[in-house]
Structures are given as C-alpha cells and as structure tokens.
Amino acid sequence: MSLLSPQIFTIALISIFLSACSSLPENLDTTNESVVTDYQTWVSMKDSTDVEVRLGGVIASVTNLENRTRVEVVNLPIDSVGKPDINLDPEGRFVAYVDGFVDPVSLAQGRLITFLGQSQESEVAKVGDYDYRFPVLKSKGFHLWRIEERIIMHDYDDFGLYPCRSLYCRDFHYGPREGRVIQQVR
Q1: Which side of the chain, N or C, has fewer Cβ within a 10 Å radius?
Q2: Chain-centre distance of CA 126, in angstroms?
Q3: Model's pTM, two decimal places?
Q4: What pLDDT, in 10s, does the model give residues 144-174?
Q5: How many other C-beta atoms lie within 10 A of the C-beta of residue 77?
Q6: Which helix (H) or strand (E) element contains residue 13?
C-alpha cells in the first residue's frame, strides 16, 4: 500500500495541474449544460430569448449609457475554455449589455473578450452607413484575454555547415537568420 501512495499523489497532482490549465474562467462558468457557444446556432434559433449564451470576439466599440454599458463585439469562434480563436474569420457581430458603468479604457477597442449572458431581443444599429441587426445578450460575466507573442528564430547555413551551438559562439552565425512570430491567447 505504501508503494502506491507516491503514485497516487503524483497522479492527483498532475490531474489538478491539468484541470487548472484547461478550465473556464470563473466568471464564464455556468451550471447550464445547454449553454449556446456557437454564433450561427444562436442567430438561427427561432425563440432565442432567455437562452444562455457564451460568445467571444474582438471589441468593436463601447458606449456608456445611463445605467449600463453597451459593448459591440465582432464575434470569433471560441474554444472549450472560452478563448476566442484569432486564427479564424469573424462570423458576425453581437451586442452585450453590462449593468452599470464599465470604463472604456479597460474594454478598449481591439481587445479580446468572452461574455456569458442571457439572450435578449435583437436590435438594429449602424455599422458605418449600413443598418445591421445585432443579436443581444445581457451579460452575467465577462473575461478579457490578452495576446502573447513569442518569436522563434531559425539559423540557416548557406555553406553546408551546422551553425555553432556551443556556449562560446552563440552570436556567430554562418548563414541568414529567419524567424516567425507565434501568437497565443492567454
């Protein structure tokens, strides 16, 4: 029995670590198992009022009204933990109303956000000169995301030699260097 204790402890630690890394933020969590997370499904529902919705995307504009804040969002598909996928094309727009005042600096245009809320009646507003019918949700909670970038560099050797990898020649390169930027939502 004592031989299994370290193994069980290790398995428990790994499962706790993995569950912490792959769970919804607390303000996006719900007990409703039928929460709608797909924009096209939500828009195509005939009676979509009072349906619980979790959607995300890029903030297009923020307007503070007397008792609430109107947030217009360009929808991006979200993954299982609510992160908008910046590698996919937008699917449309929606409006989320947040009770009270929210500083437009914290909900700045271009930031990534995910909302959890109740579906409401749609509204018509302008996008440029175009009349657009926005699906609307009343926010129960939201989560702001950030994009982290990292650069991966590659050394290329034009002379058939391998680039120096030792401690003493890290800044010496035989050939051209090329890199790429990786963006991740956190």
Answers
A1: N
A2: 25
A3: 0.76
A4: 999 888 888 765 555 545 555 666 555 555 5
A5: 19
A6: helix 4-21
